[in-house]
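Quick one, tokens below:
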């Protein structure tokens, strides 16, 4: 039996990669999903895939860093589906450099997408969560809702060349723990999932020194990818022996969204194949 029938989820950055697999997994278990991406085409493609499989989904495109995005994202779920049960703050990217070469622009951009954007989304949902919990309690019901913030092992252990990203992902873990205490009385479970090496376009191996792929973020070309030899070295240190797949990453998020995790909150689940 599908565990999320009747639930509504919003998943940021769900047009590609891990976010796409999270959206597909939640929809496959019965949830209606609001799909977000910077670009309309990948978001619409995920929606079409969900609908073709018999599920329900709509898009809410645009950058999560826009000042009004949180209100618009939450509002889309309430307008289209009449409720909101699951929030997955997944959108993000890396923009690496050693600290002496890191610009204010790099620092602020990564903090904005990984900390400020999730904060605004969660703040936008606060009134709905509080009012719904009160109504349900008055009716003698206990209804759990879920927040899953995507973190990283960089936010747990730190990572050289990623002062901005490590700081941002540590901050989202702090936000997770604070909201778990604030929202426990509203029956909202708030947890982080901290990924290790997951094979996506952001971490794909590239051959040769100095080679890389790029992604476009608001007109800024950001280098992505990992040197092929470095990738082999990283995977050799993972007890399971390889990087994870986006599907496996989505499975970990799913665990934090189902009824079996109703008594789990304020936690950081490390998903790294055995490597801390």
């Amino acid at each position: 039996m599908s565990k999320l029938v009747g639930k509504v989820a919003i998943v940021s950055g769900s047009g590609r990669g891990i976010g796409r697999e999270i959206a597909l997994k939640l929809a496959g278990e019965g949830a209606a999903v609001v799909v977000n991406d910077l670009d309309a085409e990948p978001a619409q493609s995920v929606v079409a895939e969900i609908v073709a499989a018999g599920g329900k989904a709509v898009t809410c495109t645009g950058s999560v860093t826009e000042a009004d995005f949180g209100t618009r994202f939450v509002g889309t779920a309430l307008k289209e589906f009449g409720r909101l049960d699951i929030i997955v703050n997944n959108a993000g990217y890396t923009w690496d450099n050693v600290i002496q070469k890191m610009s204010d622009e790099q620092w602020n951009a990564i903090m904005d997408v990984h900390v400020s954007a999730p904060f605004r989304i969660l703040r936008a949902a606060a009134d709905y969560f509080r009012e719904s919990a009160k109504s349900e309690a008055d009716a003698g019901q206990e209804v759990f809702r879920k927040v899953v913030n995507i973190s990283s092992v960089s936010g747990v252990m730190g990572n050289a060349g990623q002062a901005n990203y490590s700081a941002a992902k540590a901050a989202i873990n702090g936000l997770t723990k604070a909201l778990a205490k604030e929202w426990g009385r509203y029956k909202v479970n708030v947890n982080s999932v901290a990924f290790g090496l997951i094979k996506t376009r952001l971490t794909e191996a590239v051959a040769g020194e100095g080679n890389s792929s790029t992604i476009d973020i608001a007109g800024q070309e950001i280098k992505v990818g990992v040197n092929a030899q470095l990738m082999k070295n990283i995977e050799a240190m993972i007890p399971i022996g390889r990087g994870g797949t986006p599907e496996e990453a989505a499975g970990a998020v799913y665990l934090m969204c189902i009824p079996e995790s109703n008594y789990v909150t304020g936690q950081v689940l490390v998903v790294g194949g055995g490597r801390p």
